[in-house]
Amino acid sequence: MENSVVLINYVGDDNLHALNAWASTFLELGIELPDDIRARTDVLVGAIIAQGKRKRSVDELLNYLVKNGHTSPFRGSSLIYAMTVDIATHIQLLTHTVAIKHTNAESARYKELMEDKYYLPADWLNYGDEGAYWHRILEMHTERGNMFYHQALTSLVGAGMSKQRAKETARYFKGYNSQLNAVRSMSFDGLMQLWQKRGEHSPSQREIAGVVEAMVQAVRDIPGDPFKHSLAAFGV
Predict the structure, then answer these.
(1) Mean pLDDT of all residues in 30-53
(2) 99-120: buried (b, 16+ CB within 10 Å) or exposed (e) per residue?
(3) Is 1 inside any structural domain?
(4) What dihedral angle (degrees, nearest 10) is formed by the CA atoms of 92, 96, 100, 105?
(5) Is residue 209 included in any domain, yes or no?
(6) 153 and 219 part of one domain
(7) Of 127, 235, 130, 105, which is closest to residue 182 (Cα–Cα)?
(8) Cα-Cα end-to-end distance for the chain
(9) pLDDT reading at 53 higher than 60
(10) Which of 35, 49, 90, 170 has CB 3.0 to 4.6 Å from 153, enough for a Cys bridge?
C-alpha cells in the first residue's frame, strides 16, 4: 500500500504567528479579551492593527520575518499528523528531532503486527520488464518475510520463549519496506524546516519527499486557509 498522511488536528494560524512576533507589546495595550478563548488571537491582532501600533499587515509581517530569518514566531502553532509509512522513511523522519517535537508509533515489541502492511516502490514499474521483475521479487520477498515473522513468533512461544521476547526478535524478518502507523506533531516552523530539507525539490529519497509534500498539502487543504500567508512567506 502507498504511504499515507492525514492531518488530525492543529492549533494556530497566521494571526497567531503575527501575535507571537508582537508579543513584546500587545500585553501593554489594555485590550479587553472576549470570553471565547479561541477568538482572542483574532481580537488581539485586529486591535493592534486598528490602533496603528504596527505599520505592517499580517502578511507583510510574516514575509518580513521569514526574509530576515526570524522564524521563532512560527513555532507557536502545532500540527498533528497520523501517518502510515515504511520503516525506512520512519527512520529518516526520526532524525529530524529539531523539526518534529513528538512521535508515537506502533511497536512490534508490544504487539504482533497482524496487518502486514508494506510498501513497494511504484517507480520500478517504469523500467520495463526488469523493473516489473524486481518489483515482483520484492513483493514475494516481503510476503515471505511476513510469513516467517508469524511462524517464528508462534514457534518460539511454543518452545517456551516469553511472548515479549518472541515479538521483539521475530520482527527481524520484517524488511525496511514494512509499514507502521505513527502520530507525529510539530510546529509550523518545524514543518517548514522539514519541507526545506526533504521536500520534492530536494535530492532526498522520493519516499520521504512524498510524505513531506503530503504533510504540507494537508495544511493547504484546511478549510478557511488559516496558514495562507505563512505558507506564502516560506515560498510554499
Answers:
(1) 77
(2) bbeebebbebeeeebeeebbbe
(3) no
(4) 30
(5) yes
(6) no
(7) 105
(8) 28
(9) no
(10) 170
Residues 76, 88 within the same domain? no
Domain that holds residue 94: 83-179
Cell for 96? 529530524
SS (H, E, C) the chain: CCCEEEEEEEECCHHHHHHHHCHHHHCCCCCCCCCCHHHHHHHHHHHHHHCCCCCCCHHHHHHHHHHCCCCHHHHCCEEEEEEEEEHHHHHHHHCCCCCEEEEEECCCCCCCCCCCCECCCHHHHHCHHHHHHHHHHHHHHHHHHHHHHHHHHHHHHHCCCCHHHHHHHHHHHCCCCEEEEEEEEEEHHHHHHHHHHHCCCCCCCHHHHHHHHHHHHHHHCCCCCCCHHHHHHCCC
- Nearest residue to 193 (alpha-carbon basis) of 101, 59, 87, 60: 101
pLDDT band at 166 (very low <50, low <70, confident <90, very high): very high
Residue range 128-139: average pLDDT? Answer: 98
Q: Is residue 95 a part of any domain in this protein?
A: yes
- The pLDDT confidence band at residue 39, using thresholds 50, 70 and 90, is confident
164 and 194, same domain (yes or no) = no
User: For residue 4, which of 216, 222, 215 has the smallest C-alpha distance?
Assistant: 215
The answer on pLDDT for 96 being more than 90 is no
What's the mean per-residue pLDDT of the chain? Answer: 91
Q: What percent of the chain has pLDDT over 70?
A: 95
